[in-house]
Amino acid sequence: MEQIEKERFFTMAETYDAMAQTLVPMYDMLQNEIFNIVPFDKHQKITVIDLGAGSGILLEKILSLYPNSTGYWIDFSDAFLDAAKDRLHKFNDRVSYILSPLEDDWQIQLKRRPDLITSVSAIHHLEHEGKIALYNKSYNLLNNNGWFINIDEMKTLTQEAYKNSLVYWVKFVDNAREGITDELMDYYNKWKNHFDNWRVRNIENIDTPKIKGDDLHESFLNQIRWLQEAGFKNVDVFVKYHLWCLIVGIGIGDVATEVTDSSNLKVILLLKQLT
Questions:
Q1: Is 220 within 8 Å of 243 (Cβ atoms)?
Q2: Tally of CB atoms within 10 A around 233
Q3: In the CATH scheme, what architecture does the domain 3-157+212-271 have?
Q4: Whose CA is closest to 120, among 177, 61, 170?
Q5: Is the separation of the CB atoms in 41 and 65 below 8 Å?
Q6: End-to-end CA distance of the chain
Q7: pLDDT tens track for 169-212
Q8: Pairing of strands 116-120, 47-51
Q9: What is the pTM of this model?
Q10: CA-to-CA separations, 235 to 17, 39, 119, 227, 231, in angstroms, rounded
Q11: Is the CB of residue 146 less than 8 Å from the CB of residue 234?
Q12: Which run of H or of E encompasses 266?
């Protein structure tokens, strides 16, 4: 990813951590719905991967609810890594951090196959082919009957409805200002400055071709199809709220694993090449 694109996101790390739950509509509701969907008992020893994990808000919820779980934080941002380590330090060695773009081979650093792969507001930055490749990779990595859940910004059925959902978010952020405390107003203003650029890119220039790293929104119908084509079963949309969709697939991984060092549980993941 180009440096100019990195800087756009890196400067948002602290602000995002402070403001996301206030300025992203239904942010907590969408994440909390995960726990109404997955079948895991709270005492199970599950392994979780959070893709584009940011400041670790979702991982904190998962590791808290499942006290025997372990998690992988995966993101490309040094700034978000610092924010996540600050938020997740209480979980000690239950969290492993992998600093990597989602398009790269981060899977070679895994020591365990996941039971759950999640992502929140990250995959939409990938290009068309990158989304498909990530869905395929996730399918191959999951344990048998593992769950993949993507909460993200997605296009709806018509262009008019899609634009209305973009405009709704702008109005939501503007209206939220009244409830921002003096202590958080600097964070709000920083968010708003970045969000004004988002508004220009996505609403005023809605018909302008986007580049890698922009908001490359895809139809939720397309993404359901891509999950199905990757091999996921029981694919569905569990929640849709304006721009945000929660889509789910259950996978049976197609990965060969080899334990080469039992003391370190070093696992080589050999991914099936999908065409």
A1: no
A2: 11
A3: 3-Layer(aba) Sandwich (3.40)
A4: 61
A5: no
A6: 25
A7: 999 999 999 999 999 999 999 999 999 999 999 999 999 998 87
A8: parallel
A9: 0.87
A10: 30, 15, 16, 7, 10
A11: no
A12: strand 266-271
